[in-house]
Amino acid sequence: MVINQIDASTKFEDGVVITIDKPYKWTSFDVIRKIQSLLRYKLGYKKIKVGHAGTLDPLATGLLIVCIGKATKQIESLQAEEKEYVANVRFGATTPCFDLEKPIDAEFPFEHINADAINAVIPSFTGDIDQVPPLFSAKMVDGVRAYELAREGSDMELKPNRITINELTLLRYDAPVADFLVRCSKGTYIRSLARDLGQALDSGAHLVGLRRTASGSFRADDAYSMEKIENIFEELKQSKI
Predict the structure, then answer these.
(1) Rounded distance, CA 176 to CA 107, Å?
(2) Are residues 44 and 89 in the same domain?
């Protein structure tokens, strides 16, 4: 299995893992579809499996692990690895989806919040905790995606999931925005964490920025940009002419 080392000798069907720095406003599937297109039109792979190990929301950036060919068999184990994020949380306002995809729907006082107050509630969000996913999510509810129910106007609350937050560190607080380092298990919704932090501090909150910096041993610092990946595939195409 090749990891982030692609050259003219690479046999993608045998299994390749590459890491991508997902651009802002791209869906995870946009990345997969683009790589499938590059494999097809640059290198002639008509049918080859491509998948990712852990969805990133469109407004998030950072590490996306992409598995190609036989490496798709590793997706489940790669998804299970601990994730690391830098999250930007704005206190004093909420949105229906807990991030910037929807406009603010309510405002709350935040003047009473300071770094000491934030640090005081952090211990209640570490370790094994129950977390309610956002209704605007891809969770399945009776065979229907939760976000489809949300778009239809449903205000139902999803069942909580058991997750683990190994580390939650306040990096900076410049009211009303706090920056956090989060290390957590698979299935953690950082948008829900933002909501819950707001509630714990007698306010409201939503996510205004999110970057996945690591997953298992993979780091965003070592990931390819989409531009770099396109250039690599073009170089591979030219080497075969």
Answers:
(1) 12
(2) no
